[in-house]
Every structure is written in structure tokens, then in C-alpha cells.
Design brief:
Length: about 70
């Protein structure tokens, strides 16, 4: 399934997390951006999260956790 990539995401993280992400991406032969997408999609699948396309800020299912 092809997704339109029309959004930009910029995050700050620790050097350790960045290195782990690079290592995971390399192991999967993916870019870091692609690896992030896979991790988010896997999390959404496991926790039964679905995007409400009518309201892009809304999520259906799962539980909310404050960070």
C-alpha cells in the first residue's frame, strides 16, 4: 500500500536512541525514515489504532498514555 508522504516530522532524541534506530534500519535494509514508519505501523497494529481520516488529529481504538 502506497502512502502519500506530505508531512514532515522532526524529533530530538539521545545519541543512543539514534544509534539504535540506525542499527535497526541497517539490519532491515531500510532508511531511518522507513524504519520509523514500520515501527509506528507495527505499534498501531498491535494496539489496534486506526486513523480517523475525517479528522486527522483523531485516533480510534487503543489507549492513551501521557508521556
Amino acid at each position: 500500500m502506497t502512502r502519500v508522504k506530505d508531512e514532515t516530522l522532526s524529533i530530538r532524541t539521545s545519541a543512543d536512541i539514534k544509534q539504535l534506530l540506525r542499527m535497526a534500519a541497517e539490519r532491515e535494509r531500510r532508511s531511518v525514515a522507513s524504519m520509523i514508519e514500520i515501527l509506528v505501523l507495527d505499534y498501531a497494529r498491535v494496539h489496534k489504532l486506526k486513523v480517523d481520516r475525517q479528522d486527522r488529529g483523531s485516533v480510534k481504538g487503543g489507549t492513551s498514555h501521557a508521556t
